[in-house]
Amino acid sequence: METPLDKARRAPESMKARILTAARRMFGEYGFHGTTTRMIAAKVGIDVSTLHYHWGGKKDLYEAVILDINHDLRQKLRRVERVIRGRPLEERIAISIDQLTDYLFGHSEIPNLILFRYFGRTRDKEGLDFIVPEFISDIVRSMGLNRDGKPASSRSMLEILTIMNSIYGFISGANFFMPMVKLRKKEYIAMVKETLKFIYIPPFAQNEGKAR
Fold first, then answer.
1. Cα radius of gyration rounded to whole Å, the chain
2. Do 167 and 111 contact (CB within 8 A), yes or no?
3. Quick one: CA torsion of 142, 94, 98, 161, rounded to 10 degrees?
4. Which residue of 96, 103, 161, 180 has the fewest C-beta atoms within 10 A of its own C-beta?
5. Tens digit of pLDDT for each residue in 157-212?
């Protein structure tokens, strides 16, 4: 049976899709508890009853947002994997940093929501979450950090989490950090990518081939 999320993804100009897009932005900015369905409806320019007709309650819509973001992030990781496959490790890391940083800056609700989930004290729906372990394992495999097709080791996963969390932090904190370092957004994004490469590529290259 086709779900409301399936219908929204199939018809990106539909009312369902418009509400979903607004919900991603609002939940990404204010979190689950700081967002109301009235706020989302006002963003779309509709009555709240129309929102409930298309999506049900707030938790239903939030669940759709998380599922939608999971899908989009996994698709992006697969595209990055196709680009970096077979390249030297330093190139794989540099390309991944460039592409993921650009993508996540363009979809800042994703790192914001992931950080909300990491550090939020309350859970709005048990069993609903980002598929972080699977994502990290995918990146470890793409980078060639797991040997002989073995599952990702704890160390490799923590190494990738360090890079990903750095990207999330730079994006979620951009409005605070940019005035601090006196950079405009375009310059800031370029400097973030340059800084991440400066910090992470040398130790990865130095340890290439070593057991993790």
1. 19
2. yes
3. 60
4. 180
5. 888 889 989 999 999 999 999 999 999 999 999 999 999 999 999 988 887 656 55
Structure tokens at 1: 């049976």
CATH class of the domain whose range is 4-206: mainly alpha
DSSP the chain: ---HHHHHHH-TTSHHHHHHHHHHHHHHHHHHHH--HHHHHHHHTS-HHHHHHHH-SHHHHHHHHHHHHHHHHHHHHHHHHHHHTTS-HHHHHHHHHHHHHHHHHHTTHHHHHHHHHHH-SS-SSTT----HHHHHHHHHHHHT-SGGGPPPPHHHHHHHHHHHHHHHHHHHTHHHHHHHHT--HHHHHHHHHHHHHHHHHHHHHHTTTS--
Whether 40 and 51 have beta carbons less than 8 Å apart is answered as: yes
